[in-house]
Amino acid sequence: MTPLSAIDILETARTLLFVPGDRPERFDKAVASGAGLVVLDLEDAVAPEAKPSARQHVEAWLAAGHPCAVRVNGHGSSWHDDDLAAVAGHDCVVVVPKAESPELLSQIARQVDAGVLALVETAAGVLGAQGIAAAPGVERLALGTYDLGAELGVSPDDGDAMAWSRGALVLASAAAGVAPPVDGVTGDVEDEELLRSEVQRAARMGFTGKLCIHPRQVGVVETLLQPTAEELQWARAVTEAVTEAGGGSAVVLVDGRMVDKPVVERARRMLERQADRRS
Questions:
Q1: What is the mean pLDDT of residues 258-273?
Q2: What is the spatial distance between Cα 244 and Cα 247, in angstroms, rounded to a whole number?
């Protein structure tokens, strides 16, 4: 089987695990955690004086053939251009922080010949989410709750305060036909109940992935973002009933409930989510 590219992996990844770019001894451990996609971080997790060496470690990892994502430093910073040069031509996804400009995101995708994960973490980014999601080269959106919360003057853990922003990313992704978005981090790595509640809330809103900051979060998130046994049983019953009815646009009943084309599409997407497409 041909190995999947970083872009292919991103499309269905449920967990995206950040690893500081200046800690190369953690790269293999991050992969071993079972995370859907490892994100080597050149931005917030790396001190200014360590950024050049971190960039070298990341470039070496990419050159060794490891598909991953790389969060680069923001446009306008003194490190941005060098970061893009380091990842150009490699099998990676570029995570662009403070994503606001569709034109800039498309320019970055062309420049490095890679897909872009747009990290939306400003008010302007949320309001422009539709254009960002539709920009050529943008493969998926992610929500940066901490920076957004700071700008809005609200807690990043406040589900009500962040609900509109989450909804905006879900709608923008669906309208653009890209994969459903990735939710922001849960900062308290010790509180599993908080993690569970935040993942479940995001899933109800239409998110299918989550940013993680510690390997111990990966297993919990992976489990919670998979369809439940009951959901899969329902999805199989729906698709089987439609097949038995001859397919097409026929309306059938499953357990007394009407099943038409939109319901069938939802069931099929649920079954697709179950499949682990990583090789």
A1: 70
A2: 7
DSSP state of 185: -
Which residue spans of the chain are classified as CATH 3.20.20.60? 6-224
Model-wide pTM > 0.85: yes
Residues facing residue 212 across a β-bridge: 17
Phi, psi for residue 272 in degrees, rounded to 5: -65, -35
Q: Tell me the percentage of the chain whose pLDDT exceeds 90.
A: 80
Helix (H, G, I), strand (E, B) or coil at 141: strand
Helix (H, G, I), strand (E, B) or coil at 69: strand
pLDDT bucket at 279, cuts 50 / 70 / 90: very low
- Find tokens 């994969």 and name the residue: 179
The runs of H, that is alpha helices, within 144-214 are: 145-152, 159-176, 192-205
| Structure confidence at residue 4 (pLDDT) | 92
Are 209 and 183 in contact, with CB atoms under 8 Å apart?
yes
For the 6-224 domain, the top CATH level (class) is: alpha beta
Q: What is the predicted pLDDT for the residue at 250?
A: 62
Q: H or E segment at 108?
A: helix 102-112
